[in-house]
Amino acid sequence: MRYVIIAGTNRPESRTRKIADFYRNTLIIKGIEPEMVFLEGMDLNQRSPELEALEADVLIPAKKLIFILPEYNGSYPGALKTMIDMLDYKKVWQGKKALLTGIATGRAGNLRGLDHLTASLQYLQVVVHPNKIPISQIHTLMDDQGILVDEGTKKTIVRQVDEFISF
After folding, report:
1. 120: helix, coil or strand?
2. 92, 113, 157, 166: most buried, per Cβ within 10 A?
3. Helix 15-29 with 151-166: angle, nearest 10 deg
4. Sign of dihedral through CA atoms 108, 113, 115, 118?
5. How many domains does the chain have?
6. pLDDT of 158-167, one tens digit each?
7. Helix, strand, coil % over all residues of the chain, rounded to 5
8. Are residues 133 and 156 in contact, defined by beta-carbon separation less than 8 angstroms?
9. pLDDT (0 to 100) of residue 13
10. What confidence tens digit (pLDDT) does each residue in 119-154 have?
11. Mean pLDDT over the full length of the chain
């Protein structure tokens, strides 16, 4: 079963990417080698050859998708929305399973963004796992190198990943 982790921002060197890396390492420990999608530097405003290759080689073959969503203005990033809209929804999204985690420096851990993306994915006939984690105060849970150090958050993510593997 092919897993893909999507870091839902196009900002370089983001905390989103660091959390996506933690999810990747968690899956690797469990014997699953996920593919990673990073939006930095991608031309998402047209069906570029790069986007078409991502669609054909990574997203269409995937069965399970993990989205890491930073909070942008009370929702999820426009770059992610644009990517979703540019792809063939029947081939890429329909019938897949998704896991969502929100991150924010504020108190709510991107709860609204999680709800917004859930609604969009359900419209595209993606089954969204019910355990969506909102990670608040992300900057306090990481060290100076951007490594997740909060043990409670790590355990919560591992539990969520275990549930998703069985989902």
Report:
1. helix
2. 113
3. 60
4. negative
5. 1
6. 999 999 999 9
7. 45, 20, 40
8. yes
9. 87
10. 999 999 999 999 999 999 999 999 999 999 999 999
11. 96
Domain that holds residue 143: 3-166
- CA 47 to centroid of chain Cα atoms: 21
Q: Domain with 117 in it: what CATH number?
A: 3.40.50.360
Burial class for 57, CB neighbours closer than 10 Å (0-12, 13-18, 19+): exposed
Helices (H), the chain: 15-29, 49-54, 78-86, 89-92, 111-123, 151-166
* Closest-CA residue to 80 (of 59, 53, 62): 59
Contact residues for 37 (Cβ-Cβ < 8 A; gap 6+): 4, 5, 6, 7, 54, 58, 59
Is residue 100 classed as helix, strand or coil in its secondary structure?
strand
Nearest one of 40, 123, 130, 36 to 77, comparing CA atoms: 40
Task: Measure the CA–CA gap between 73 and 154, rounded to whole angstroms.
Answer: 26
